[in-house]
Putative thioesterase (YiiD_Cterm domain)
Amino acid sequence: MLIEKLQEKLHTQIPLTKLMDIKIKDYNDVNLITTAPLEININDKGTAFGGSLSTMTIISSWSLCWLITNELGYENTNIVVIKNENSYKRPVTKDLECFTLKPTKEEIVLLKKKLDSKGSASIKIKSYIKEEKEVCVEFEGYYVIKLI
């Protein structure tokens, strides 16, 4: 299954994801949900470390790009974040849970057209880290995908 393949890829090819214990919780038509334990992503204040929060959103968004390109039939791609911004709204005091929103069908169709015609394309991805239904971190990133 694609989720297991992605989880293995993350932990073997991006070792930080294994150290942070990032896991894929769910993937559906709306979003990708990833988790990581607070215990190993904690700072000196007893809340989630900002670097872990940033890494979580960047990796989760990268993972969604990987899932989308694989679903479109592209198995060999380079996916790179080229620009991103995190806004920290409130501290995270429990295990990290990141919700990465799937782009619209129209955005995915446009991505495929560009990949087919140019061999590369960019896409905007949004993620949120929530705790008890409240947004703690907002993320917006731009990713370039190149066929190899």
User: Anything to note?
Assistant: Residues 2-147 form a domain with the Thiol Ester Dehydrase; Chain A fold (CATH 3.10.129.10). DSSP finds four helices and six strands in the chain. The longest strand covers residues 134-147. Residues 123 and 143 are 5 Å apart (CA to CA).
